[in-house]
Each structure stands twice: as C-alpha cells, then as structure tokens.
Amino acid sequence: MGKLTAPAIRARKVRDGADPLVMVTAYDAPSARVVSEAGADLILVGDSVAMVVLGYDDTLQVTVNDMAHHTAAVARTKPEAHIVADLPWMSYHVSAEETVQNAALLIRAGAQSVKLEGGRKRLPMIERIRDAEIPVMGHIGLTPQSLHAMGGFKVQGRHAEAARRLVQAAKSLSHAGCYAIVLEGVPVQVAEMVTEAVEIPTIGIGAGPHCDGQVLVYHDLLGLETRLAAKFVRRYADLDTLATEAVRCFADDVRSGAFPSSRESYHLSEVELAALGISGL
Ligand code: KIV
C-alpha cells in the first residue's frame, strides 16, 4: 500500500468519505513492528514514553535527544505506518532556531513529521517548522506538557467559552499549516464542533467518536500500563498479567530444575567427549 504521507493524511476527513485514521504509540522496534503489522496508519513516538516506558509521573522529563533515540529505534523497523515524533517540552518554547533544529533532529532520526502541543501561542513556531518543509501535527485540549499550568490532567473545554477557544485554536493551527490535530481530553460535543470547523483531520484521545481518527497509547491498549486507567482507555489485552505469569513460570522451572532441558542445552559430540575422556553423559 505504501507509507501514508502527511499530505495524504491531511485529506482524510471522514465527512468526505475517508476511513477514520488509526494511530498508536510505539517507542522501540518490537512495539513499532506490532503497530505497523497490525495495520495502523500512523505510529506516534509520543513523549508518553516518559511515563509508560521510563517510569516518570509526567511527560516533562524527556529531552529531544531521548525522543530522537526512540524515534530511531522505531524507524529502523522500516514500518509501513507514517512515523510522527513528539517534540518534547522545552524543545519548541525558547526560540524559532532551536525549534527548527529540534524538529530536524527528529526527522533525521527517521520521523516523517513532528507533533507539538498548544494553541495560538505556538503559531510562530509551527510556521517556522512548516517553512523548513517539516510537516507538523498539532495537539490541543488536554495537553500533558501543560500539566502544572492546567492544575493536573484535566478534561478541557467543559465551558462554552473554553469550547469556543478550542475551536478557534484548531482553526488557527489549520491555517498555520498543521496537517492534522490531536484532540485530547475534551467533551464529545466539543470534539465534534472542532472536527466540523476544520479542513484537516482530528485524531481523538478521550474526545469521543466524532473525530476523524483515534489514537491510544500502546501500553494502555495492551494492558501493559497498570498504574493509570483513564476513562477513555480500552484494554484490548492483559499483557501485564500474561507477562508476569510467564516470568513466574520461568522462575518456578529454574528453581525446580525443569529449565533448561537437554533440548535447550548445547552438547559436545561423541568424538570430543572421547578426547576429553568423558563418557556416558
Ligand atoms: O505522547 C503521547 O502518547 C501523546 C498521545 C496521548 C496523543 O501525545
């Protein structure tokens, strides 16, 4: 089928008859292979890596070098899916020059586009990245990098004025050249208003069914992350339980002597055994 490009993704509006976009996070080669082989359209190398892989309590701890490291691991698998890499906190806040350099670092690591969080405040940086020929995905609503400013991981756009601001923000991101927008943690009706208001696809997470696509975090979807269970997470498997059970079986087998078996061991040939004067083993 070939990799979906940013311009092709940009054209994927459900109201125009397109299939909803499917995006799943991945942070390393095994998860990238699973996500791509399962047929996702996009792999997001999300800064959620900080929480679900590196064990931090928020996403603020990862640097652009960390993101490049994980993006490169995903890209080495040469997935069918389009790779979008998150610009982490403080990698697009200081200056336009730094922002473009950081976006370029992620593209050189193997991403085909970058994502950043925030509304109108981010427009100058979005335009600079776009002018460097790098496709940009926006992200509004509950933006985890604004954790402290928002006063926690809280649903956004609950009041009419805030809902209107989100619609305006989405329009300006689209106008500035974003090819798609992640809408996170907003009421269903607000996501519908935003999706109707813009020409580019919206990809929801905790934003209800009316978006042009959906994204979930790999570890949430597979039941590998057991600490957090946001309302919007659907666990399609319980890999944490399966993995714990598998490791417990290994431990039992080691302790009982059942592992390794003869078939799982290497053996000297009869000739070498004879040369060593060993027999009957
Ligand atoms: O980092 C991430 O996983 C994200 C998704 C929640 C959209 O940004």
Automatic annotation (TrEMBL):
GO CC annotation, single: cytoplasm
Any one Gene Ontology BP term: pantothenate biosynthetic process
Enzyme Commission number(s): 2.1.2.11
Keywords: Transferase
UniProt enzyme class: transferase
Pathway: Cofactor biosynthesis; (R)-pantothenate biosynthesis; (R)-pantoate from 3-methyl-2-oxobutanoate: step 1/2
Keyword check for Glycosyltransferase: no
Entries under NCBIfam families matching the protein: panB, PRK00311.1
HAMAP family the record matches: PanB (MF_00156)
Protein name per UniProt: 3-methyl-2-oxobutanoate hydroxymethyltransferase
Source organism: Geodia barretti (Barrett's horny sponge)
